[in-house]
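Service request form, structural biology core

Requester: graduate student, group of Dr. S.
Request type: structure prediction, single chain
Budget code: on file
Notes: please return the result as structure tokens.

Sequence provided:
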Amino acid sequence: MLRGFAPPAQPWLAGHRGIDLAAPPGTEVRAAGAGTVGYAGPLAERGVVTVLHADGLRTTYLPVQPSVRHGQTVGRGEAIGVVQDVPGHCPVACLHWGLLRDHLYLDPLLLLGRGQVRLLPVWPTHREHAGHP
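Core staff response, request fulfilled:
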């Protein structure tokens, strides 16, 4: 892994919304899970593949020369393209892998049972706060 997940404090701020994996151009890219291809094509001068999963998650892969098309069903581990030789995002050739739920970016390593887990506080309800059980 060249660079980890570092989401911004606010959605409009700079941050790293995925992970970068060292991968030479031509490396086969496989779907992290079963789903339907939501997008496969160029975006900002690099290839992008997006897979929509049944559980509401969306994975993104770039820069990738797609071997799949929009609407195609893919299985977990199925080849979806190859890493393109596109400079700019990483100091060496890499695959940027992202994970989203709606518009919220998540650490894709969570799909592998890794990644940073963030617990949210449990706020007392109005009744509990007023001294009622």
